[in-house]
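FIELD: query
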Amino acid sequence: MTSNLAGPAQTLMHAIEERTARIGVIGLGYVGLPLAVTAAKAGFPVTGFDVDASKMARLDAKESYIEAVSEADLATVTDQFSWTTDFANLADMDAILICVPTPLTRQREPDLSFVEKTAHTIAQHMTPGTLVALESTTWPGTTKEVLTPILESLGQKAGTDFFVGFSPEREDPGNATYRTKTIPKIVAGDGEDAGALMEALYDAIVETAVRVRDTATAEAVKITENIFRSVNIALVNELKIIYEAMDIDVWDVVAGAATKPFGYMPFYPGPGLGGHCIPIDPFYLTWRAREFEVPTRFIELAGEINTAMPHRVVDRLRAALDASTGRGLNGAKILLVGIAYKKNISDMRESPSMRLMQLIEEVGATVEFLDPHVPTLPPMREYGQYQSRAAFDPQDVAQAGFDAVLIATDHDAIDYAALLDLGCPVVDTRNAIAARGLPMTHVTKA
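FIELD: result
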């Protein structure tokens, strides 16, 4: 492999093969920290970069703030992994992996400000021969049209002085089977040398690196994966509404259909979309498609259905209260069970539970949340008013006088039988009660 390269590319390839290439990971969040630890475990010297000094303090104390990385994991890479808020140290890196957020604006358009700011910082400190890889999910063309021009802005030339690639993150928080090392990694580079370097680097970090033609293709792969999930979740959410009108339980339907060993893949309804990827990625592609005057009706319809689900859940909650007590939501006291976006984790990114809390409180109800994984609400871009709100103490639930319970996330650590013992209406968006074989008295599926 090395013989096909020359100059800086050959030098970097040799360092990758010898595991002496110094890797910098920018953004030590849900993607960056597991990636940094995985690269360090593979034998590379790794430096993590982040603007959040509180993360540095936690790492200094040998504490992990990400569930995918244990404190035992940190202990195994003590000699290989360091961290800093000083981005001048990027000058010492041979490969720089960008793992920063790519959210949406309030107008539901791509916000690449974190990527752009990071790229400008890299350009100021990058030395010749560096490989720069973007991991953040984005629209096809971002690497070549946004990242590379910024990196070239101070005079260095991509493909000659430095190399650029894209490898989309595929993290699945809470998945005990597939971790950073075992999830196949899509890789691509702008140019043959960059592609070869990307393949070699990631092949040394994870078990399987899958090289595709170019960075736009790699960007499209990630977008496609999440649009596939968004569309299918929207479909089953719509089927739920249809089958409810026919007095058919969609969970029973999906369970039956899932027995087919070919031609079907089960997806499950819920109170809305959560996580960083599925609620956001489709909007990146629809925004990009407008530039080419290509309609995205199917994708946009799925987005409309999924975005509307929290409103429908609140309607079901209101109806359950009306049927039970003859009162609506105004003045009611609601226990929201599960504030994280997914079961058995603490990840709050784009959690539909926050939208549910907001909608319920807007109509005059009081909301407390119960979540064994989230003791207090973290800072969030869209829900700053809820920062530091504490979870309700499970021991106080029985005496709190709740008018209704809304199950939004089905954590295993919740005592669902105790919730039923409250005797008030329970609205279950996750089939948590029936799945545990508990009585469905006072339970409404939503």
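FIELD: remark
Residues 2-213 form a domain with the Rossmann fold fold (CATH 3.40.50.720).
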